[in-house]
Every structure is written in C-alpha cells, then in structure tokens.
Amino acid sequence: MFLSSSGDVDPTSASSASVGSSESPRTLQRYARLALAVVLAWLAWIAFRDELGYVPLLSDIDLAIHEFGHMLFMPFGIQFLGSTMMILGGSLTQVAFPLVFFGYFIRKQDDGRRRDLFAAMVCLWWSGINLLSVAIYCADSRAGQLMLLDGSTGQESDGHDWNNLLTRWGLLAHDTVIARWMRAIAFVVCVGSIIVAVWSALQFSRDQRVVEGADAATLPSK
Asked: Of 15, 43, 70, 178, whose CA is between 20 and 30 Å from 207?
C-alpha cells in the first residue's frame, strides 16, 4: 500500500487489498457448496436404490409436510375443493413445498442477478426427492404393501391415497406405469439440479469478484 504525497491512501491499492483479503472466505464457501452438492448426490443415490426412497431425517420432515397437505385442503373439517383434492393434497403439498423456496431463490433481484442459484437448486433437488417418494407410494396402489401412518398396510386400510385417487380416476390398472414416469421425472430433476448446483458453486468466486470489482470501480477517488 502506498501513500500519496498528500497522505491519502491509494484507492486502487485499497480495493486490491480488500479483494485479496476476502478471497479465502469465498474459496471456503465454494468448497462448502461443492461438498454439499456431493452429499446431495450421495443421498439421491441412496434414495433411488432404496425401496422406500428413504433419506435420513429429511423423509421424516417430508412425511409431516405430506400430512399437513391433507389438512391444508380440509380447513376446520370442511373439505375444500372436494374430497379428491383433500386426498391429493398430501402428495401435492409434499412436492410443491420445496418449490416455494426454489421460486424465492431463483427470482432475480433489482440488479438482474438471481438471489442464489445454488440454494434454488438445493430446493429443486428436495422437490425431486419428494416426487420419488410419491412415485413409490403410487406404485403401491394395487399391491398395498406399504405401511401407512396408522400402522396398517394399504391392503388392510382404505386410507391409501393413491389407491383411492387412481380408483376415482379409473387409472388403477396403470399405477406402476404412472409411477415409472414420476420416478423418471424425479431422477431428471435430481440429476439436473445437482449438475447446475455444481456449476453454480464453481462460478461463485468469479461472480463475487465481478460484483466486488464493480463496487470498487464506483468508489470515488481523491
């Protein structure tokens, strides 16, 4: 850092020192994001290989969101939009809930930049995992082997969401075909979101430098 003859600090040197001092935290954030992307890929691998699509802790949270979805369409015990929507509401809310956060993070700010593309992809991945769970539930419509929340199986209870839905829609015989399409979409969503998340993490430091460089360029010089 050099001083001018008048004793003022050179703004160019000051901005360079500031950028250099912040390089290390940015690098750590980039590696942390890359590490999280690897964890998401590993969890997706586990979920797609597991017959129940179970992800530790997350699946328990998703179950609570699913049950909340049923109640969301039945306020005060009155079925809202009909009994079909009350039944569908569990799976629908389970998949849509992470998309609310996806929309928040993907939205562009006043400067034209997205709020946080990496965070948006994490939320999209979460929605894909939930769609996998719904696909497994749908595939069980006729078999009725999955254990329901009340402790009975689909064969022992009339509370199997997708058995009821597909029966109403006349599509029960196509449960596994519909489930395969859901599973395929879930796979594409998970893989695509992880790829974009990795790309976003690699771009993170460069984008931050561009923003900080632009901010430094606007600093008044003496």
From this structure: 43
